[in-house]
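**User:** Hello, beginner here. Are you able to go through the protein record under this note? It all follows right here:
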Amino acid sequence: MGSPTYGTDKTAMEQLVDDVGSAVAIGSPADKKADVKYNPRPKLVMPPKGEQAALVAPQQSLASSESNPEWLESPEQTRERLRQEASEHADDPNYRSPLLEGYGKAGTRTETQKWQDFRDARALQKGAYLDQRRYLSDPPSQYRETEQASLDDLGEPELKKAKRRKKEAKAAQQTSEWWKPFQ
């Protein structure tokens, strides 16, 4: 019985000897590329001499903001525009940057805004907005509605439930059946 061949039709030792032999072989391997015949590339097809000037110019890119006035301003362009606007109004004490809109002094939030945000977050956390969906992960409002009867039903009291279970367990331990009709 021979050793495994690993798909090479040679034993592991024969393959190792071949690999080591080819790694340390002196001389160059046979040039296999010498038999390949390469054909020259054909020449480019050009329009006739008189029609070269009549070629249509390529369409201008619609993605560039310079050529399309409806294209939105990039964040870099917006930042540069706001910096330039702020430097132009540096001496004007009544100038207020659009970036500070809705905030207190120097862009900080006022205490009332902070408290209002806190109240909104607490109301959301407590589930104060049960009448509407705020997120896609919230269940639809019709799934949140329940019948009043199901809310009023408290179920069997725990003391009665415990007595009933003790009675059933005691009855299950009885081996004779004669007393069951008298219950």
